[in-house]
């Protein structure tokens, strides 16, 4: 049996040039270029709602680690005889487990987001338990639980990577396979240079890398699969998570079989044992890079389709009362169906009217619950609908007008306090921050460090004091509501504050919902309905 990189006792030192090695070199260059283009596309479109919530920092970092390991294996047949005997050992003991750890940390974000978006689905579920339960937890455990999700996952990944590196270094130190002058007696290898390299490429010393692959692929990944079984999202995130988890299951067993079963020797001369691991890496890259790219393209196409439908509707309604009446009569039935308890739509009916802002505002005003539930549980954008509902309520308040607005800012807009900040322009964000940021910091406390408004999940957040931080992954919404019920701001109200303070942000979020969540919601409810159902368009009921 040969080594990890196909080195045999009869291998000649030097670069191996033949049809097989040339094929693998060309494949490496082509696939690397494709992956680089995909990563570039994701970075360019990082502000897309589909990508903002994913946290590209983790996933792309994992891809870089995994791809470096992948490329070293693809070129193994060509450069294997030239590589040092312990080269592949270090690659498999460092780059591969680091990439897998970061990748599964990124993958677990799916469950975190799905869990915490549930608080936007039903207003009664926003306060699951009392934040005081968390205040009683002291010591390292309490401090860890109060950290933000990103910080906690970084700590877990850091510990696992450190443990992996420690075991890898320990095995290298105690075995004389790679250094004959020191180590445990009896572990050294003998023979020619190629015979020694062949033995260095396999053996019991490799168990730390195998163990971590088993942990991530056969323990962590199935747990993620099981916990995500009931989630149905519109972002393609569940498909990505399931695909990556399943594609990794074969890697370690097939690597062991190809390395230690003599019957696999003929195949291993063309398909190296670690190629089975690299096959899973290719699928991980497909699901992590190109599925999100496809989702971004779908989002752009859906947005343009919605804008075109609105334009067609406006042309119809400008034709006069007759054409408007005809359009209304033959138009969509979704709003009326929702308001009357149905959730279906005639596939043959026109949908221009239902995609208008008036139809969206009607649902928000009369029966927002189905849309709110869909946006939170399926589209992972529940903060948008919750903000629109809260903003509509603020205009009805008097004495606690500013306090209500301040809580809305902290819950949905502030990048320091909101767990899911809504996606508004930096100009609108800065304008609102100038009004509310100082009172919010007085009421909710100072964060240890800020976050990137463009990618709020990529930066750790946290507060150094009790009660727990509004940015804590478990207690943000509960803490804000607890403070809202107990404390009111009594300081000076900024002169810039008035009843229209959120109008620009509201218009921005309505446009985002109109071109993203709303058409998805309509499509999800597009099934047959009786043609005589009530039709509601804008403010009119036909």
Automatic annotation (TrEMBL):
Transmembrane segments: 22-44, 56-77, 89-106, 153-174, 206-227, 239-261, 273-294
Keyword Membrane: yes
This protein's UniProt keywords: Membrane, Transmembrane, Transmembrane helix
Keyword Transmembrane helix recorded: yes
InterPro entries recorded: RGS_sf, RGS_subdomain_2
Renumbered residue ranges of the record's region Disordered: 455-478
Signal peptide: none
Protein name, UniProt field: RGS domain-containing protein
Organism encoding this protein: Penicillium capsulatum
Lineage per the UniProt record: Eukaryota, Fungi, Dikarya, Ascomycota, Pezizomycotina
């Amino acid at each position: 049996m040969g080594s990890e990189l196909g080195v045999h006792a009869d291998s000649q030192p030097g670069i191996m040039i033949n049809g097989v090695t040339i094929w693998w070199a060309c494949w490496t260059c082509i696939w690397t270029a494709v992956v680089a283009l995909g990563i570039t596309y994701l970075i360019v479109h990082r502000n897309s709602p589909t990508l903002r919530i994913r946290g590209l920092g983790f996933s792309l970092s994992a891809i870089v680690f995994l791809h470096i390991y992948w490329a070293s294996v693809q070129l193994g047949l060509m450069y294997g005889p030239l590589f040092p005997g312990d080269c592949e050992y270090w690659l498999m003991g460092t780059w591969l487990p680091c990439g897998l750890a970061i990748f599964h940390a990124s993958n677990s974000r799916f469950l975190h987001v799905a869990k915490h978006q549930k608080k936007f689905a039903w207003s009664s579920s926003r306060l699951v338990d009392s934040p005081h339960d968390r205040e009683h937890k002291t010591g390292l455990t309490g401090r860890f639980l109060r950290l933000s999700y990103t910080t906690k996952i970084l700590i877990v990944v850091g510990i696992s990577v450190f443990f992996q590196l420690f075991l890898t270094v320990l095995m290298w130190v105690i075995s004389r396979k790679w250094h004959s002058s020191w180590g445990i007696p009896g572990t050294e290898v003998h023979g020619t240079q190629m015979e020694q390299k062949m033995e260095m490429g396999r053996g019991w010393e490799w168990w730390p890398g195998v163990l971590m692959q088993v942990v991530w692929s056969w323990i962590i990944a199935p747990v993620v699969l099981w916990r995500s079984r009931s989630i149905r999202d519109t972002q393609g995130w569940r498909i990505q998570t399931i695909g990556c988890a399943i594609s990794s299951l074969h890697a370690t067993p097939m690597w062991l079989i190809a390395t230690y079963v003599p019957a696999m020797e003929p195949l291993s001369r063309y398909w190296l044992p670690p190629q089975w691991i690299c096959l899973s890496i290719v699928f991980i890259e497909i699901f992590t890079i190109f599925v999100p790219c496809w989702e971004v393209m779908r989002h752009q196409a859906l947005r343009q389709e919605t804008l075109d439908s609105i334009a067609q509707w406006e042309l119809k309604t400008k034709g006069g009362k007759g054409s408007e009446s005809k359009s209304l009569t033959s138009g969509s039935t979704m709003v009326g169906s929702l308001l009357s308890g149905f959730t279906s739509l005639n596939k043959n009916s026109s949908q221009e009217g239902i995609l208008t802002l008036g139809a969206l505002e009607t649902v928000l005003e009369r029966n927002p619950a189905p849309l709110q539930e869909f946006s939170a549980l399926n589209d992972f954008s529940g903060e948008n609908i919750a903000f629109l509902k809260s903003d509509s309520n603020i205009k009805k308040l008097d004495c606690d007008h500013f306090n209500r607005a301040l809580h809305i800012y902290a819950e949905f807009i502030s990048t320091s306090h909101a767990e899911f900040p809504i996606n508004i322009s930096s100009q609108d964000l800065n304008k609102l921050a100038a009004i509310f940021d100082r009172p919010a910091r007085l009421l909710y406390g100072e964060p240890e460090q800020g976050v990137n408004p463009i990618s709020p999940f990529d930066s750790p957040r946290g507060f150094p004091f009790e009660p727990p931080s509004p940015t804590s992954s478990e207690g943000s919404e509960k803490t804000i509501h607890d403070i809202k019920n107990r404390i009111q701001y009594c300081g000076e109200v900024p002169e810039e504050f008035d009843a229209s303070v959120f109008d620009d942000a509201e218009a921005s979020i309505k446009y985002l919902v109109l071109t993203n969540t709303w058409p998805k919601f309509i499509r999800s409810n597009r099934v047959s309905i009786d043609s005589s159902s009530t039709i509601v368009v804008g403010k009119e009921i036909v």
